[in-house]
Amino acid sequence: MQTLDRLLQAGHNHTAEGMAQQRLAMRLSLAVGVLMLAGKTYAYTITGSAAILSDAAESVVHVFAVAFATWSLWIAVRPADDSHPYGHDKVAFFSAGVEGALIIVAAFYIIYAAIEKWMAGLVLENLSTGTWYVAAASLINVALGGYLVWLGRRTGSIILVANGHHVLTDAWTSFGVVGGLLLTLATGWLPFDPLVAIAVACNILWAGGRLMRQAVGGLMDEGDPQVEALVRRILDEETAARHLAYHELRYRTTGTTLFVEVHLLFPSGVSLADAHHDASEIEAAVHRAVGARLSIITHLEPREGHDAAHGRAGIPEIDIC
């Protein structure tokens, strides 16, 4: 998982300049998507190729997905409010999930259309011209997709990264289509066209499933062993140095912000002021180690009689780490 890397980048780049770059990149992606869709639609019109139709269908999905992602990016940067006290960052996972679902729908449509064309009888025209259109679209999308992924990682935006991977998937799809068209031109065997379309559909089906998996993991607050290991290492070091203990470590991420909760256990006789001072230093140590946008809450408890106190309060006993 890349949660920690994304959080580290977000901690350094969640600035007004970074957000302006993200918005510009999304507008660029939308404009290029519309241009690619127009070119591929024309190529399909003059050729009747199922492979080019599959590429054009993926571009339709891309345009809708980018429009939704642009809206999601606008929502994600809104500050926390009374109805969303943790902010709006998690819309990024929703955006990635919608994009993945649209890709899957496109894949099933491509398979259906390719089989239907094959059974109805294959008629292809102007393949050379259509191949040039698709090849040009492939090269443009490689450049755009690489830029979006790079900028998304640099600014900590899961929305840009997801969109960049979608653009790259579109590019690999187009390269596959070009290969199939060249085989058809070289051999004259027309079934290469629908077969390539079906292969393309299987590839983007896998890509869409991966995006859906990432989105569900984020929305369900799936744990990340790398994040947990880092936070536990710092807590182990800081509590041991102060002869303290801790338990009930919990964490979750919104994609750009890491929220951490932990209970600190102090020996009897420690004043509230001293305990608060130690807790603040431990929180600062976690901040320095993670280096990301972090919200950490520490709950102070006495170590002696801890379980009995919880029992009196009706709280189940918990093993101390």
What report would you give on this structure?
The longest helix has 32 residues. The protein is mainly α and 321 residues long. It contains ten helices and three strands. Strand 1 and strand 2 form a beta hairpin. The protein is elongated. The chain has two domains: 217 residues, Up-down Bundle (Alpha-lytic protease prodomain-like); 88 residues, Cation efflux protein, cytoplasmic domain (Alpha-Beta Plaits, 2-Layer Sandwich), CATH 3.30.70. It has a three-stranded mixed β-sheet.
Main beta-sheet strand count, sense and barrel state: 3 strands, mixed
Under CATH, the topology of the largest domain is which? Alpha-lytic protease prodomain-like
Just name the CATH architecture of the largest domain.
Up-down Bundle
CATH superfamily of the largest domain: Cation efflux protein transmembrane domain
State the order of secondary-structure elements, H for helix, E for strand. Answer: HHHHHHHHEEHEH
Given as residue ranges, the uncertain stretches (5+ residues, pLDDT < 50) are 4-13
Structural class: mainly alpha
Kindly give the count of domains.
2
Bulk shape:
elongated
Strand content: 5-15%
From the alpha carbons, calculate the radius of gyration and give it in angstroms: 26 Å
